[in-house]
Every structure is written in C-alpha cells, then in structure tokens.
Amino acid sequence: MTMNASSPPFRSSRRVFALSTLALAAVLAGCAVGPTYQLPASAAPAGWKEQPAADGWLPAAPADALDRGEWWKLFGDATLDELAGRVQVSNQNIAAAVANYTQAQALVREQRAGLFPSVSLDGSGKRSGTVGGNASAGPSNAFGATLGASWTPDVWGRLRETVNSAQANAQASEADLASARLSAIGDLATNYFSLREADAEIVLLDETILGYQRAFEITSNRYAAGIAAQTDVLQAQTQLVNAKADRVGLQRTRATLEHAIAMLVGVAPADFSLPPARWTPTVPGVPTGVPSTLLQRRPDIAAAERAVAAANAQIGVARSAYYPNISLTASVGSNASRVKDLFGSANTLWGLGLSVAQVVFDAGAISASVDAAKAGHEASVARYRQTVLAAFQTVEDQLTTGATLAQQEGLRREATAAADKTEQQLLNRYRAGQVSYTDVVQAQAAALSARRALVQLQVNRQAAAIALIQAMGGGWQADWMGAARPVDNRTSNNNAASRTP
C-alpha cells in the first residue's frame, strides 16, 4: 500500500495501522508457547554417609555464584599462593574458557537484538541520456532515498525462548570457566605438593645414602681386617648403589612435575624452575557436618542445570512453528531529479505492510521437531541428575579417603619409629659381632621403606584434601571457615610427632 505523504488520509491511516499493530501484539503476547522452566529434582541425601549428619539439609540446587574464596591458602604455602595467581592469569585453558564465555555473551546480545525492529537506509543516484541520434533532450538525473523498517513481533515467544536458551548457554559457559579455574588450580596444588614431597624424599635419601656410605666403609674395613666376610661388603655396596639409583629416579619425577607446573602457569619448561624448599604437609581440616549446600557450588552441576534450561527453551522454539509468522514493514522514500528536492513533501511516498505466513502441511515435521526437543530436554535432565549423583559419590569417596589416610598416618609414624630403633640396634649388634650383616641390611631396607611410606602418605592426604575441596566446588563458605583449621604435620629428621596448632 503506497500513498503520497501530502494526501489527507496519510496521518489517520498511519495511526490506525499503528494502533492495530499494538493491539494485535498485546493480544498475542500472552500466547507464548514455551513451557515454564522448573528446576529438575535431584536426589539430595539427608547427610553424608562418611560424616555425621547436620541439621538444615536442603535439596541440591546450583548456587555456583557464591564466593569460593582462595581455597588454596588453607594450605599455608606462600609459593603455592604465588603460583595460583599466575595460573589464573596465564593458563591457556582458562584463557580459552574466558574467550568461550565472551563469545556466549555476544551470542546472547545477538539473539536479543532480534526482539527489536531493524531499520535500513538506501540511497541511489543515476544520470542517463542518449548516445547519437537527434535527441533534443540532454542527460537527465534521478535521485532516490528510502528509509525502511521491518519487525517480526515475538507474539508466540519464539524469540524470547531463543534468547532464554542463549542466556542459559552463556551461564553454562560461565560455569565452565569456573570449572576450568578450579581444575587448573587443583592440578597446580596437586603437582606442587607432589614436587615438594619429592624434595622431601630426596633429602631423606641423601641422609640415607650418607648412612649407607658409612656402613659400606665400616664393612670394607672389617673385611680388610679379616673380621667380616666379602658378602657383607657386597651387600653394603648393593644397598648404597640402589639408594643412589632411587635418588636419580626421584630427580626425574621432580623434573616431570616441574614441567607440568610450568605448563599450568603458561610458560615453557625451559623458562621455569622451582628451587628445592622445605615442605610442610599441612592438611586443612574438614568442618564437622559440612552441609550439602556447599556441593551446589560445583560448576559442573551448574553447567548441567543450565543445559536443562536451554533445552527447555528449545521446546518453546520448536512449538512456535505451529503458529503463523507475522512480520511488519514500513518505508518512507522520495524520488527527484535534484538532490534538494528529495526532502520535499510532494515527492515523498510511504508504505506500510503486514504479512502472515502459516505452514499448512509439513507431513509431521514440526511435530517431530517438538518431540525431538522434548527428548533433548529429558536427556539433559538425566545428565543433570547423573552429575549430581556423581558429585555426591566423589565427596563420599574423598571423605572416606581423608579419614582413612589420617588413621594410617598415625600407624605409619609408629611403624617408622619402630623401624628406626630396630635399624640402630641391629647396626650396634653387628659392630659387636652379634648378628650377620644380612640382618642389618634387612633392617635398613625396612626403615627406609617406612620413612618413604610416611612421606608419601602425607602428600596423599594433601591430594585427598585438594580433591575434596574440588568436589565441594572450591573451599568452604565463610561461616564455616572457623571450623576448617589446618592441621600442620611437620616431619623433622628424627621423625618428630605431629603437632596441631
């Protein structure tokens, strides 16, 4: 429909059309076809099997927006704190997750833009004439300008559901970013403490090698004096060389861990080094009765729940295909032989348009699309529930591991103390000629094995604590921090007992 802008009915027709359009949009706005989103139910236990139950248990519901805090500081290691800061800035997996989140946010803005009209401006200019002949008229000019607008009212909620789906995907991407940070810092802490444990074992082996070297020299002197057999010398030499070989293996392990930490902080291994340092096997204490609400901060649970929301929105998008597609267009244009005449009312033409498109027959394609969207939603719900169950299993496993390792540490300390006494007594008796050197070798091997097992158990406790913190979504809430006092287990050269500050 076109009409000259100077004609009398122009203004009244435009008002009628605008009012009719607004009325139509208002009537149909309540016809949104998307299903109302409901958080999927999940199996939240009344308490932990491996920990006494506490009051105030709630059904699991993602709460990943809560502050996790700098959980790695619970271990009280300044070098780890510095490395964790570098990981958050330079780790490439985190950088990729940040880029993915930025991309998801841009897609939300792109989808939201579809809710608004689009406006375009076209301009043209043309000069024409004849070539040859007896044309009496000279060249002519033609100029045109058109301002157009188009809008597809979201009367069925299709665009809103598309925006909701994009927002849910962006929130899932944000949860993936939190998961990348949690995973990277967790890997850093695990590798860092494993490296420090290797340092501690190297120190232990250095002390042991010195002892074996003295034993080898004593045995060699006794053999030279005709007091000991040559087999005693060979046994002492075998122990000494084996200990040196073990130390070389630990150096390789330490180098591998150092390379892994370099990758996590985003630098080449050649440009990164961690000098040996004293290791304090601090293990953060788990608050008694940690509530399951802490588990709700796990980013993988949040991402799985947001995937359910996105799938729910896709059902509405699929259902909207059952209804007509309505679009509105409007344009204002002018044509003239001179540019200055383009803006004269006598040359202005306008147009308003309304189009409605409805699928009449599609052989069940829309119905199949809706069924597919519903099935996708059901699959997302199942994956969400499985993620929640796996999360609770992980926490239970780590609670069991932590409690078991804590009990084992006390037993390992007793075994180490007994093995040390046995080694010293048998060595004294051998010097007095009361026992064979084979007995000494066996006692020394048992003592070294007990010491190394204790050190390895201590780093395993730290690894279990890190895994538990990750399973909880990262640290404890502020009101529980008072109960999470670190346990400081210091191991000196004489295997001193644990002290809890």
Summarize this, please?
This protein is an alpha+beta fold.
Write the layout of secondary structure elements.
Layout: E1 2-4, H1 9-28, H2 78-90, H3 92-113, E2 118-128, E3 140-151, H4 158-224, H5 230-264, E4 282-284, H6 299-319, E5 325-336, E6 348-357, H7 365-431, H8 437-471, E7 486-488
Antiparallel strand pairs: 1-6, 2-3, 3-5, 4-7, 5-6
Helix pairs in contact: 2-4, 3-4, 4-5, 4-6, 4-8, 5-8, 6-7, 7-8
Describe the structure.
The protein is of the alpha+beta class and 501 residues long. Helices cover 56% and strands 11% of the residues. Strands 1-6-5-3-2 form a 5-stranded antiparallel beta sheet, with helices on one face. The chain has a two-stranded antiparallel ribbon with strand order 4-7. The longest helix is centred in the middle third of the chain and has 67 residues, at 158-224. The termini are far apart.
